[in-house]
């Protein structure tokens, strides 16, 4: 009985200790994380390819339509890129004139590092996605992970060769270990602001809270990260606004957001690395 | 079959849980049907070998699960799998369970396991879902998978664990 008590207390202590932010993991953790991930990598990818093949065969018709749409997007892209080049040159010239420091210039310069998903935890309370980039590749906790469609999650544990990603489906106001993401509306970046901090598992929607009364946010708007606070990069698509209603206490508004990215059966994701961050980690 | 071989087989099943099995699930069932392959082996160990083996296997494979997918917390599965394995063994290790009895016990133990896991996450405020919702969303669907899986491995698993006893019988008697 006494032994049981001690074991119980020990486990509770370990659990309590392991929650929340930890900069570095101990070597047994690193070892088991890396070694299992190494083996899992060799099972996940072939399984994904085989399954993907069947899906592609079923989707042949959809691909034809997608091709049409992509052509239109490509035409729009060509126009926009000319405009972008002019603005970029103008922006650089102004930054030089105002004597921006190197760090300030690199602040919004991001690198998208491609990572392969190697395993997914089945535990419904902690659906960790494991990816094959680690601290040796310059990955740090709280980096943002995206797919081509939008935000997937945040890196929360990093070991030398692999890291764990917590999907944004685990965002919660009450949990001790999740983050809140500052967000704004695409096209109304200066007028709109809110905080994405909760995911309703039952409805599958995100909540954006603390929106001001005079905010121009409307149904159908695309929500992106605002980058204010400089923890998360700016301009990452989170989702589209579903509805907006008066929040708690009636002082602010709360919007319901449909996430843009799919969270199931991912094969490739991108980790957004800030270039100004890379400089520090190189030393 | 020796214990080392059984551990090897369990490792293979553990590795397939987050990779191969994940790809076999359709999109809508991800997160709803949760595989507990290693738990099934731990429970077979409890029924046909002894509670101490089940305790050690449960703690070891639970810890592996906790560490290999370390995202939010370490120790939940280790603690729960060890506890459930030990309790099942404590109740039933002396009897030679029949197929129906074994399946029933595995069903009940898996429910207990999922319940404890839910409440541990709940205590640390890592989930804010209600228990009723968790039951209907993933606990009950996972039990069906667990029963099917146990049925599939019943014959080999029982033989392996019982054979592993007869070789090391003398060591076990001291406990």
From TrEMBL, chain B:
Record GO biological process: regulation of cell shape
Keyword set includes Transmembrane? yes
Q: What keywords are annotated for this sequence in UniProt?
A: Cell membrane, Cell shape, Membrane, Transmembrane, Transmembrane helix
Query: Which cellular component appears as one GO term in the record?
Result: plasma membrane
Spell out the InterPro entries in the cross-references: Cell_shape_determining_MreD
Pfam families assigned: MreD (PF04093)
Q: Where's it found, cell-wise?
A: Cell membrane
The topology of this chain with respect to the membrane is:
Multi-pass membrane protein
List residues traversing the bilayer: 6-25, 99-121, 133-157
Family statement: Belongs to the MreD family.
NCBIfam families reported for this sequence: shape_MreD
Q: What is this protein called?
A: Rod shape-determining protein MreD
Question: What organism does this protein naturally occur in?
Answer: Paenibacillus montanisoli
Q: What is the lineage of its organism?
A: Bacteria, Bacillati, Bacillota, Bacilli, Bacillales
Instruction: Name the gene behind this protein.
Output: mreD
